[in-house]
Amino acid sequence: MKSRRGVLQVLLGSGMMMAAAYASTYSEVMKAGPPPKLIRGKPDKVDFGHGLLVPMSRDAFETLWEGDDRWITYGHGFGKSDAEAMGKAEEAAIATMKLFLLTLAFAPDRLMRVDGGGWRLKTGKAADLVRGDIDLPGRPVMPTTDQMTDFLSGETGTDNPGNEMIHATTGWLIWKKDVTLDNVRAHAKLVPPDPTPAPRQL
Questions:
Q1: Measured between alpha carbons, how far is 41 from 35 in angstroms, rounded to an integer?
Q2: Hey, where are the domains in the chain?
Q3: Which of 8, 133, 171, 201 registers the highest number of CB atoms within 10 A of its CB?
Q4: Which residues contact 65 (CB under 8 A, 6 or more apart)?
């Protein structure tokens, strides 16, 4: 069993590693230039340059963003700590990255281009994404967390509104020099689609 001091040391070390990873990614993005710029509007958008103009709305999470030198997806997550929430956000962003890159590589006809440099499902149905797995290098970009109250868990008629939860959002960035669609086709492990059930005999 870890002592309280040991647990605190692990948490501190984990936080420092996360901060170092975020700082490293920020340095890479700044070096590639131009610096990301917030454009106010409805919705607000982040201009990454390189053909990427990402809306700060739900659409950002349902899209693979392709610039001339990078791929970006977004994820969000909830947790009782920054680390838990950010871990779930990264998992969601990575899963979105894998599914969309697999679909773009093997079934591009299921996707359509959208303004800002994005790829989105034509039907909007997750079942149209190509299923499988692939090892991808990547790093978080522009991670944010904020505290919010989980009102659904509170007891009606009491002064306690609910549990405080952390909401995290992050982008997941892969440089095209590290991953191309040819790489995806060569190394992906696809999951066979569910067989279409035979028609019932009357």
A1: 19
A2: 4-189
A3: 171
A4: 52, 54, 71, 72, 73, 116, 117, 118, 119
